[in-house]
Amino acid sequence: MINKFGIMQGRLLPKYKGRYQAHPVGYWEKEFSIASKLGLDSIEFIFDHNEFDENPLLTNEGLNKIQKIEKLSKVKVRSICADYFMVEPIHSKNKLIVDKSMKLLNQLIKNASFLGVKNIVIPCVDKSSLKEEKDIKNFINNIKKIVKTLENADVNLSLETDLEPKSFAKMIDIIGSNNVTVNYDTGNSAALGYDPIEEFKAYGDKITDLHIKDRKLGGASVTLGTGDVNFSIILNLLLKYNYQGIFIFQAYRDDEGIEIFKKQYNWFKNELNLTLNN
Questions:
Q1: Based on CB atoms within 10 Å of each CB, which residue in 21, 39, 193, 251 is the most buried?
Q2: pLDDT, tens digit, for every residue of 22-50?
Q3: How many domains does the chain have?
């Protein structure tokens, strides 16, 4: 298991316009040097719906700026959390939304490949949850159209869903590409009451992106170690299934971000060391 750590974009900075999770337009660059000083390896960039056209992931100028900051800070963008598709989902019943979203996703894949980004996380939760069989069918059909693009770009679509484990695994099997993988969110799974052992049995070998957070059953995000996530079990499962990706901290945040992160980062590293030394 690779011992590398990354941060969800914005978690080390003051909230952008009071939003819990958002691409911080105008000051996103500041986070790279902070992450570097904390010993973090990467930042999972956010591509959200609000002001998406101002996101540097969409322009050559923006991509070049990201590369320059990566070089200076030694902190890389290795993954993208595409929250945009929670608002305009790929499986929408509205064809205009689907066409627009698929066009943007194709552009993201191309630009991710240029940056050397390995995973684009597609959240199918909350507003974009796959609630009906029709939603799942539409999602599968639309993702199948871009499988070749993903494979040629060597980029994974790392899916995050609230489907129960066997249904989630079945959907990925039907899509049938090694480049359509799983984003495992520790907090969201705990909030849904899922058993990590059953989840890993269903798709443990397909996890390529990992979000570290803690939540109570049916509740909101809380500081690491105070919710219902059994980190000991999950870390041992990650070892068992030879997880090779980065630990992305999407943990609880306050208005400022950095001090609450440091506290949780130290707590998690201690948990990880206990697991590795047992």
A1: 251
A2: 999 999 999 999 999 999 999 999 999 99
A3: 1
